[in-house]
Amino acid sequence: MKRIALLALTAALLFTGCTPTTQAQVVTLVAHDSFAISDESIAEFEQQSGFKLEIFRAGDAGSVTNRLVLTKDSPIGDVVFGIDNTFRGVADENNLIDGSLSEVTYSDVCFNYDRVWFEENNLAPPSSWRDLVLPAYEGLTVVSNPLTSSPGLAFLATTVAAFGEDGFEAFWQQLKDNGVKVATGWEEAYFTEFSGSAGEGNYPVVLSYSSSPAAEVRENGVSQTVPLLDECFRQIEYVGVLQGATNPAGAKELVEFLLSVSFQSTMPGLMYVYPVNPEAVVPAEWARFGPPAKSTIGEDLDIASNRVSWQDKWSAIFD
């Protein structure tokens, strides 16, 4: 009877011109909202590995990390991209990673200003982020929330490094009194509130990255925005296999691909971050419009041990 059924199935497949196929196994990448990958890179990975790539975006780096903590007993993906050195302590404390995290990008968290806005308003731009508490810059600055945003937490650490544990709160109080806008994350701050990107925001100074002006080069060959390159924060992003990954084999292949020359060479143009692979290609215009910071502070602090205390003190000012 079984033999008859098998023959019937074979005949049916031959009649319809179909053959049995095996669906590619899925590997899921959990990433922050700023993660970008081209269709060509997706096709390259899927062809090389035999796995189908799915991407789950979960907010800013802080939101991604917190989401992974809440779901660690039932992981929402196989690989994470975008936990950075401000939130790495949370990942380590909660044993989120199977093995170790690998550096995948770096960038410098710096303030950018809208050059055109300052020219049109006949106002000298700030020369340092320390100037942002001055009356001349009242109501001109937008930052991202250090409770949920990695650039926000990076700048919070920068202020601790600059003013000390006993002095950073006074700076933030001055910044608040001077009308600083606090956005939920970098995307909201940069693309919605900042005047120098989409051009519709009300704030000509934004907490962003040293490389951001390379994305704002206009038809005249000049960037609309300028970075403040002193006392920035060197942000490092990581990639790693999640503990309890459903597809550990696919996860390993995906991590290797994200560190490859092929993918790393696409990151500057898509995400405006620097690749860690020394063989990756960085656009020539970055030397002019998106150079690394001249100096950085804050990244050497023990962020993992002090993050909650700093955030609580910040919240007491802004809540």
From TrEMBL:
Entry keywords, A to Z: Signal
A biological-process GO annotation: thiamine transport
Record flagged with keyword Aminoacyl-tRNA synthetase: no
UniProt cross-references to InterPro entries, sorted A to Z: ThiB-like
UniProt keyword annotation of Signal present: yes
Pfam families named in the record: SBP_bac_6
Name of the molecule in the record: Unannotated protein
Organism: freshwater metagenome
